[in-house]
Amino acid sequence: DSGVTQTPKHLITATGQRVTLRCSPRSGDLSVYWYQQSLDQGLQFLIQYYNGEERAKGNILERFSAQQFPDLHSELNLSSLELGDSALYFCASSTTSGVETLHFGNGTRLTVT
Amino acid sequence: EDKVVQSPLSLVVHEGDTVTLNCSYEVTNFRSLLWYKQEKKAPTFLFMLTSSGIEKKSGRLSSILDKKELFSILNITATQTGDSAVYLCAVGRNSGNTPLVFGKGTRLSVIA
Fold first, then answer.
1. Angle CA(A56)–CA(A62)–CA(A63) in degrees, nearest 5?
2. Does A59 contact B at CB distance below 8 Å?
3. Distances (CA, A) of B44 to A71, B11, B14, B15
4. Mean pLDDT to the nearest integer, A93-111
5. Cα nearest neighbour of A33 on chain B
């Protein structure tokens, strides 16, 4: 158990809808990262937060947004969902904002129908 | 554009075989190379390599980095069915606070 908690585990929704994925980092970790994993693309970095502030941004669509709250949990919001958004979304955390070992949650599997 | 390429994409071996997984990279401001094992869910950390030529070992797994040729290998000896997983290679950079860049992974299947 990595200590990173993601909810929900599974989510099935229709195109055009909006969903929120939640992540609680390991105790003491200040950085939260969001990754998207689809079959053909591997793990794609979306966004990183460190102590409440956005630190790095990857190939995150404008329809997606995230934030990190004062208690350090993070939420990833996906809106106007399309079939191609179906994927496994991972949250990871690390102690600092630099490149250290990431600890991954078990992911949220999103299916858009 | 930064790139991490793993080969082969998939591999099927018999229990007891030795396998070598490859990872090559092209990134700016290289800092470290990491290997993760992903079974059904979360990737779990295996090794972090920062220096060339120094082998890291954990049981039957070992890994080494060549910073001149820009690649790393992950060796698994005496494979077991429990080694079946996707093995991910990731590269960390020194520039700013950029995250790990992952390869697409090698899917290893070990059959009895």
1. 120
2. no
3. 25, 20, 23, 22
4. 84
5. B99
- Interface check B100 vs A, CB under 8 A: yes
Q: Decide if A45 and B99 are in contact by the 8 Å CB cutoff.
A: yes
Q: In this structure, are residues B106 and B9 in contact, taking their beta carbons and an 8 Å threshold?
A: yes
Q: What are phi and psi of A106, to 5 degrees?
A: -80, -5
- The 10s digit of each residue's pLDDT in A26-65 is 998 999 999 999 977 788 999 999 999 998 898 899 999 9
In angstroms, the CA A37 to CA A10 distance is 14
User: B43 vs A33: CB contact, 8 Å cut-off?
Assistant: no
Closest CA to B36 of A49, A72, A92, A74: A92
What secondary structure does DSSP assign to B44-68, as a single string? EEEEEE-STT--EEETTEEEEEETT
Q: What is the DSSP letter of B28?
A: S
Smallest Cα distance from B31 to chain A, Å: 8
Over chain A, what is the mean pLDDT? Answer: 92
The pLDDT of residue B95 is 67
Phi then psi for residue A83, to 5 deg, are: -55, -35
Banded pLDDT at B97 (limits 50, 70, 90): low
Nearest by CB to B98, which of A41, A43, A56? A56
Residue A99: predicted pLDDT = 55
